[in-house]
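>> received
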Amino acid sequence: MLDIDSVLVMSNQALESAKTLNYESGQVGAYRSLGVVYIMTGDYPKSLQYLDSAMFTLEGTNEDLLLRSNILNSQGVAFEETGDYKNALASYLEAIRIKERLGDEEKLGKAQSNLGKLYLGMGMLDSAAVYLLKALSSEQHLTNSNGGSASYLVLGQVRQRMGDLTEAKKMFQRNLILQEER
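>> returned
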């Protein structure tokens, strides 16, 4: 089990050390860690503050595109949770564009799944299905992935809302099988 309080203490210590050493890459990592932890605690405004600091600091370095795309994906989650779909959409699309360019299949599937989930929340079912199917394509061939378990679950919800209950049932069953394999 993850001890959130310990992660917060360690991330804040890492941030202070990186600032003392003027180590910008360390600051970016610490800001991102803090942003992700605050997503986990449900404090999305605080999460966005730290993720914005990570992005701002990252731009002052020899920019790491993979890290940038991971920060954008985290920002998308926080924006989505606060109901800011416009910024969530922009963050997810930019993260996907970078991950595609870098060939990062492992994280690409997660970003595509997040975008599919966002489109579901926005009621854009066709777009949701497109990105969830892309996510499954990206995730299924990875040996260290859960094989798209979360994507199957959300795709099942999409199919259910579209009225295709047979296909929805198949997606939900596939999700359960993958959950049991973990």
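>> The chain is about 80% helix and 0% strand.
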